[in-house]
Amino acid sequence: MNKNAIIFDLDGTMWDTTTAILPVWNEVLQKYSGETSKQISKSEMDSYMGKTLEQIARLSLPKLDIKRSLEILGECCKAECKSLEQNGAVIYPELIDTLKKLKEKYTLLIVSNCQDGYIQAFLNHYNLCEVFDDIEFAGRTGKTKGENIKLIMERNNIDKAVYVGDTQSDFDAAKFADTEFIFAEYGFGNAECYKYSIKEFSDLPSVTDNIF
Questions:
Q1: 178-201: pLDDT as tens digits
Q2: How far is CA 42 from each of CA 26, 122, 139, 200, rounded to the nearest angstrom?
Q3: What is the DSSP string of 139-204?
């Protein structure tokens, strides 16, 4: 029997943390006011979703040496993970019930460009550790999202998968990994040339059933 998987992006696909983590990041940045006056706006934080920490560092603190930028943003990430695990963020409507329904038929995986602790904060706060079979992220492997999709599929002996995401880079990653792609229209970004899409998270079961 073929082993089929749904692989999820996190930000803009399953939750929106921008409002929750914005004050956390700015509080950390304030500690380094002698080095930078940077305070991040909501629109900026939205634009960072889905990017790697190095990409965010170059965008948010371009005047600092990249090593120092990564040190400061690394502290931001540690603080945000602690806050998210304790307090959660905004999950999309019917997310938990839909995931449990999908779990009855498919292997569920997460691949994100985040740092260590971020996916775990999501899983721990919402008690979803038993729903997902495996996770992978750029902060652990140093690989691109497409490479991590391939990696997690190989590790879990997946025959066919679909990647669910909300940006063009998610589409490109799915194409690189030779998986199908479902565009989450409600997320942060845009995509072109996709075949499948969902307007709400709860649309997933009917769309994935058509794919598999």
A1: 999 999 999 998 999 999 999 999
A2: 11, 21, 23, 23
A3: HHH---HHHHHHHHHHHTT-SEEEEEESSHHHHHHHHHTT-EEEEETTSS---SS-SEEESSGGGH
| Contact predicate 212/160, CB 8 Å | yes
Q: Report d(CA 158, CA 178) in Å as an integer.
A: 12
Does the pLDDT of residue 1 top 70, yes or no? no
DSSP secondary structure of 11-22: BTTTEE-HHHHH
**Quick one: how far is CA 138 from the chain centroid?**
10
Over range 128-137, report the average pLDDT.
Answer: 97
Taking the C-alpha atoms of residue 105 and residue 3, their distance in angstroms, rounded to an integer, is: 10
Strands 15-16 and 90-91: what pairing? antiparallel
Q: Which residues fall within 8 angstroms of residue 37, CB to CB, at 6 or more apart?
A: none
